[in-house]
Amino acid sequence: MTGHRKSGALGPSPPPTEPLPPASEWLKPGPAYIVPSSGFFFGGAQQTSLIDFLPSRLAGDRLVKQYFLAVHPIAQIVHRPTFEREYETFWDEVSLGIEPQSSVQTIIFAAMFSGVVSMDESIVIRDFGVPKASLIDNFKLGMLYWSTQSISDLSGR
After folding, report:
1. Which residue of 20, 39, 44, 107 has the fewest CB atoms within a 10 Å radius of its CB?
2. How far is CA 136 from CA 3, 11, 45, 95, 122, in A?
């Protein structure tokens, strides 16, 4: 016996496997990767604001509703009544021109991000008029920025 199986009682021989591409190809970041800039960590000349990433109140409400419909039942990472109170306070502060606490901003952006991710592409286009990837990128950048602000707040910088 030569070690090779032939088609027959045991079934067909498995197809030959293709060699893996070089590690540099399959270890590189995917298309969703955001390259951090030094400004996120060391401060930059460009001042970033909450308004740069914040959707309208109506869009935010839709995304938070989606979070509670699709994500919260599976992964309950917030206490809903507390989140809802903080969410209302967040929008009250925004409407008064007050910058909400960065830790609250981070949680709210994470909920909105989760809402977008859990939606079908066609629904995102219908409800928001932009591709899903565009909204996802916006919230990724917002979460990255606000999470670094939260860390700065905690460290006293």
Report:
1. 20
2. 51, 46, 25, 24, 14
Q: Where are the domains of the chain?
A: 49-155
Torsion angle (degrees, nearest 10) of CA 72, 30, 152, 134: -60
Average pLDDT, the chain: 78
DSSP 79-141: -HHHHHHHHHHHHHHHHTTPPPPHHHHHHHHHHHHHHHHTS-HHHHHHHHSS-HHHHHHHHHH
C-alpha span between 73 and 69 (Å, rounded): 7
- pLDDT tens for 30-76 read 655 555 554 444 455 455 666 677 889 999 999 999 999 999 999 99
Q: Which two tokens stand for residue 136?
A: 């996802």
Q: Is the dihedral of CA 90, 124, 147, 43 positive or negative?
A: negative
* Spatial CA neighbour of 110 closest among 78, 73, 156, 157: 78
114: its two tokens: 């989760």
